[in-house]
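Quick one - first record:
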Amino acid sequence: MLLLENVNELPGVRLFVNRDMAAGTTPERARMCLETFATLHAAFWDLDATQRDRLLPMRLHPFLAPGARERNRALNAAAIGPAHRAAPEIFTARHAALCRLAIEKWDALLERWYTGPLTLIHGDSHLANCFEYAAPDGPRMGMLDFQGVQWCHGIRDVQYFLIDSLEPALLAECEGELIRAYVEALARSGVALDLGEARERYRALAFQTLMVAVVSLGLGALPERADTLRTVLARAVTAIDRLEFAEWLERL
């Protein structure tokens, strides 16, 4: 039995959908989401392997489970060509070549992405998986759709939300401030994260956001979502270029 709740009918709740994500959110709402991410991440920050496996076994990890490394590499490789043909003006030949280089360096990428400290992350943390609700001290953000939950660095949720959910020009203006806001929110929950490390991890993990968009457009079969996918792909490509991920990957 699958039990569903209509969150829209809860008093004081606003549920966001894909068209809200595509329209783009505000830095103020993004900051509320970062507070929520920090609260989740701080509760599970840097548990040892035994504690993590007791809560969510690594055999279920989308990237590190047995066989997952090879499946993801093959899936991503298969999506590059179709995504380029579907949106060559967004996902150019240069970006396709970058993705193929990432496939060549897949093992090194995974090692960098999943080196501790690890915490429990939402894993699909864009605006359409969030909802705003009234609290005694003002509006707050909640999360739903935890099918991508996994052990990773907390900044994974941060970059995925910001890159997917904010217009690129706006994000370029406030990105550093929002990363700092997340670090400060962690600190209020008793977790110390160096700001420089947070920015470096943000840059490294930004490729996951591009990767999801490439696979969704290249191998997906959802034409009614094509405009949203193209919007998200354009945001991911812009972020990869702005963060100079190609230069980072060359040195990896």
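second record:
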Amino acid sequence: MILAEMHNDLAITDYVEPKITNFHDRPYKVPQSERFYHALVSKIQSPRLKSMERPIGSLNQFTDSTDISCWNRAQESISSVYE
């Protein structure tokens, strides 16, 4: 809730209701952070960023590999994804 309130205090997007809900049918409470992602994406003005088909995310998000995260040469090779 604190991060949601901090996000709203920045006033860089439309207001996003800070709420915690269930994660599908699992017993976990989550902030449904994709709402903040969509609010931020809607404010992007850069034509280059707008033209991206989908967000890439961080190295950890699309590799899911601790080996790559610790191997500098692999990270350098993968950096071309961000160009």
